[in-house]
Amino acid sequence: MNMRKKILAGVVAGMVVAPAAWSDEGMWLPSQLPGIQAQIKAAGYKGDVNALADVTKPPLSAVAKVGGATGAFVSKDGLVLTNHHVAFGVIQYNSSKERDLIKNGFVAENREAELPANPDYRVLVTTGFDRITDRILKAAAGKTGRAYYEAIDLAGKAEVKACEQDPGYRCSVVNMHYGSDFYLIKQLELKDIRLVYAPPEAIGNYGDEIDNFMWPRHSGDFTVLRAYVGKDGRPAPYSKDNVPYTPPAFLQISTTPIKDGDYAMLAGYPGTTYRNRTAGEFADQMRWQLPTRVELYGSILKDIAAAAPAGTEAAVKYAAQVQSAKNTLKRAQGELEGMTRSNADTVRKEDEQAMLVWLKKQPNAQAALRDMDAVEKLLADGRATRDADQLFMLMRSQTQVLRAAIQLQRFAIEKKKPDAERESGYQQRDESLIEGNLKQVQRRYDPAVEKAILADLLARYYGLPANQRIQEIDAVFGKDMAGARKTLDSLYATTRLGEESERLRLMKADSAEVAGSTDPVMVAAAKLMRAILAGEQKAKERDGELLRLRPAYMRTLAGFRQSQGRAMYPDANSTLRVSFGKVTGMHVKDGMEYTPVTTVAGITEKHTGKFPFDAPEALRKAIAKGDFGSTKDPVLKSQSVNFMTNLDTTGGNSGSPVMDADGKLIGLNFDSNWEAVSASWMYDPRYKRAIHVDLRYMRWLMAKVYPAPWLLKELNVPAE
Fold it and tell me: I need a labelling partner for 405 at 20 to 30 A (CA). Which of 289, 398, 493, 684 fits?
């Protein structure tokens, strides 16, 4: 083992073991938990902490990745509990103007009445989480830049291919600490997911964006799904002959009332945090990324609202995209406000400067400094074209037909290669997901809306300096807005890609036929593909160097944190994490306190009869009746709705189960408070809170408002 690897191995080992000092901060890897079991026990957990280290054993084996977020199994017959907003695409997929499940909700009368989810919707059950750092880094030894990136990529693909020899599983390789450590994750891929119970939007999204990230909250943000498999017990696409999946474990819903100070623990798949990024990246986030994101997503929402007025079929089709964009917008607004309030860039800069002072007193400091200086140069180089790069990315991600055309052109290119050499996302393992994505386009597409979004993004693009112009965009759309508008009208007037049969035909066609397609949007996608591929090659060169060089920063930061007695856990990266703390309110500022539990009284107080405070009549009547049965809070003398904890969460934790000291399910995570939105970058224990649906509210709705007695029986909770 060379010296670089010896140093790396030592530091990584240090990162995976928490120091004695501890706070409520922490999105812990399960393997770290035995090292802090004294703190977990002191916080009030009554279970076996060592069992939490094994993702294949209860209770963590009951936690699944659902859609792009989290959920949990809650019955032996594959019931999955997640957020209304996590399953919103499923609800929207099954909705139309004539049968509006978004507005009216859905309660399956029995299992036969459950509705299939969109074809690309997945539930992933983690069955393996193994460290493979040595195998991955061995392949990249002595390489730099793109060669380093490709060595890591190929080594990861080889690991994935070997792992997926076991049918029905989806595997991935993730890196921790920005290229310092690598893990192989094995997940059972459940493909047949069905809608079982969803409250009306006026319950599941009560308050919409006005209340988003706010407290007090009164949202019933939950949905019940069910996972199915083939009769042989293996994952299979939707079929009426499939049978419910039997999970390795499921969580029992608690019937014990919660109270202030109670232990709480959350397990889920947090998306991405950036707490260990450089000071320069903190500054970029505050001064460029967040302000531009606010501007762009605010504008896209206006485009959709104008082109798809409320009450139209187009509005139903774009409901899921609108919800996603609203959340992105408000999150960016809150993150900017929070980072500004915390003076995050200055605090991080001062922290980094102190780290550098410490580093200069350590052996081999110069080698680390050289790598860290190289990282800064790479980041600076990326700023030169970031505006154009962001707009081009949105042209591909915020459209439906153009995105499908680009996906088809890229798939035609990749399928000519040996599978191991294909780009990730276009290998044989990905083909069912590609097909599922292509199948649903017409349910989420309207040409007038897509043209409006593209016109907006192109107008911004034409306003950029000449050195940021992308030749292929100009070739497709023209060099000014007058030409672009004519081109957009022409493209969308004659394309056939709005038809599912045409998209699937092109997916199955040979590469030459796809490349030679005369469909105008396919022709545009083929031209744009040259810019996409060129950008990817440039990104691989940069990302390869960052993978190679960033570990120097992480080694230094780990050593510096250890010298401070502070915790060091990996930034979140959509892998299973655990956080623990307590049910608690918050002191906001002088004269303002947040109590930890809300009740249905707040629903009535907020009700205006107009969206987003348009509580359904059935709910209002039930509240007025006051029959709360076994779910009534004994202290508040009313029906609870939401509660607050100090658990450490971020995006991706939506739908995460919240458990009590006995490991029983008490809540479902769905949001953070406004003061904590910036926690993805900077953790502040004064303000970091998480907001959850109290499952007593869910039980009450199922018992008294939109009854589902058969479902309550399956959940093994009282029906009254």
Answer: 289
Q: List beta partners, residue 32.
A: none
Asked whether the beta carbons of 681 and 282 are under 8 A apart, the reply is yes
Phi, psi of 712 (to 5 degrees): -60, -35
What confidence score (pLDDT) does residue 525 get? 98
The pLDDT value recorded for residue 684 is 85
Taking alpha carbons only, the member of 326, 207, 213 closest to residue 680 is 213
Nearest Cα to Cα of residue 697 among 172, 240, 217: 217
Catalytic residue status for 221: yes
pLDDT digits (tens, 9 = 90+) for 439-457: 989 899 999 999 999 999 9
3-state secondary structure (DSSP) of residue 251: coil
Q: Is 172 a catalytic residue?
A: no
Of the listed 172, 574, 654, 656, which one is catalytic?
654
Helices and strands (DSSP H and E) totals, the chain: 27, 21
In sequence order, the β-bridge partners of residue 228 are 192, 244
pLDDT in tens, 110-140: 999 999 999 999 999 999 999 999 999 999 9
Catalytic residue among 84, 85, 607, 692: 85
* Catalytic annotation present for 324: no
The amino acid at 137: L
d(CA 296, CA 457): 8
Report d(CA 540, CA 639) in Å as an integer. 54
The catalytic position among 221, 345, 456, 671 is 221
- What one-character-per-residue DSSP string does 427-459 give? SGGGHHHHHHHHHTGGGG--HHHHHHHHHHHHH
Structure tokens at 394: 């949105």
Asked if residue 674 lies in contact with residue 606, where contact means CB atoms within 8 angstroms, the answer is: no
Q: Which amino acid is at 162?
A: A
Task: Dig out the tokens for 549 from the structure.
Answer: 């060089």
Token pair belonging to 526? 């083929």
Q: Is the peptide bond before 59 cis (omega within 30 degrees of 0)?
A: yes
What pLDDT sits at residue 16? 41
State the residue for tokens 């459209």: 399
pTM for the complete prediction?
A: 0.88
> Which tens digit of pLDDT belongs to each residue from 212-224?
999 999 999 999 9
Dump pLDDT digits (tens) for 269-328. Answer: 999 999 999 999 999 999 999 999 999 999 999 999 999 999 999 999 999 999 999 999
Residue 6 has pLDDT above 60, yes or no: no
Per-state percent for the chain, helix, strand, coil, to nearest 5:
50, 15, 35
